[in-house]
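Hi everyone,

Forwarding the result from last night's run.
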Amino acid sequence: MNKAPTVSRLRLLRLLRPEEWLSVLFGAMLLFVAHFLTDPDFGLKGILVSFRRGVALSMGRQIPFFSSHMTFFLLLAGLTWLAFVARGLAARRWSEVGRRTRELGGLLRAYIPFLVCYVVYALLRDTIPHVRSETYDPALALMETDLFGHLASTLVYNALESPAMTWLLSKAYGSHFYVPPLVAFLLFFRGDRRPFRDFMLAIALSGFISYTGYLIVPVVGPRYALGEWQSIRLDQAGNAVLTFIDFWGETSRDCFPSMHAAWTVVAAVFLFRLSKPFFWVYLPVAAGLMLACLYFGFHWLIDMPAGVLVAVLSIALATGLHRWWYAHVADLVAPDPPPEASPAPQPPSV
């Protein structure tokens, strides 16, 4: 006896994509933490105040966080759409222009997990200190000095310090905000949706696994925890990227594991699968970003392999979850499921 299709039993799951469900679940967890695990002076009201303040600051001229990121994304989307229109006009294929425009709308929806990741990060910046007031920086500093005789970040900085290196690595570090959306674009318009969907879910998973780590192991990093880094920060005061990071990072417990390392590895793996030339072009940038995490004292050494492990775990989980999702819930490879084909007419019997 044939069983009813599993898809009919899991109809509710089809309302959202896996990374969107993940965003909803983590948002609910954040509200739970704020309401039940913070002091009464913060709570859900603190989340709302933090959100309003973050939007006001990030959309302004001083700390253009979301505004610069959204500008970059919308510029990519606009240029891509114009290319589609030009190609359709040249070939006189208006249906192609319409189809590609609808696909671009689907990409705007797919971009939401990126925004959710950044919004949650901004909210955690204010929430974690009300959940875990202590940090593990002294223990990590002691571990590094026992192993190396000094802090790993200070050793790296003293060995490589120069104005040119500071400028170069600050640019590599800032690529964290732009490379993942660019990789998403390249994967989306390649035509095969499965790598794109796997990438988006891996990005969301690595982000939210990292955020869970921030709640469990709050760490601010040597740049903000140790006095010996204060003079170095003063020397770097004129760097726009570092000024932006210092504004957001000084009170954040966002080091273990390194989400910079996680997203960099995820982007590099999918670029390698997509295009070897793109991967080799990105590899020096990725290496520079990893080095910048230590050079600027943003991370302890242990944060980096922890971030790489998060990336590997997220890619494996995304691939496995989507394999199950495609088989039992919905087909996320095609943007729109094709209509059921009508049976072919049978020739008249002779």
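Residues 1-7, 335-350 have pLDDT under 50 and may be disordered.

Cheers,
N.
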